[in-house]
Amino acid sequence: MNRRKFLGASAGFALLGARQAFAAAAYDLVIKGGHVIDPAAKISAVRDVAIAGGRIVSVAEKIDAGGAQVVNAAGKYVIPGMIDIHSHAAATKGGPAMNIADGVTGYIDAGSKGAANIDDAVAEVKAGPQTGRILINIAKPGVSGGGAAGGELMDIANADVAAAKAAIAKHRDVIVGIKARLSANVAGKNDVEALRRAEEAAGNLQVMIHIGQSVSPLSQVMALLKKGDIVTHLFAPPPEAVIDEAGKILPSVLEARQRGVWFDMGHGRGGHFRWDMAEKILAAGFLPDTLSTDWTPEGRVSQFVDFPTVMSKLMYLGLSLEQVVAMATSNPAKVFEVFRGKGTLATGAVADVALLEMRSGEFEFLDNYQGKRIGKQKLFPAGTVLAGKWIPRPA
Question: Fewer CB in 10 Å around end: N or C, the chain?
Answer without folding.
Answer: C
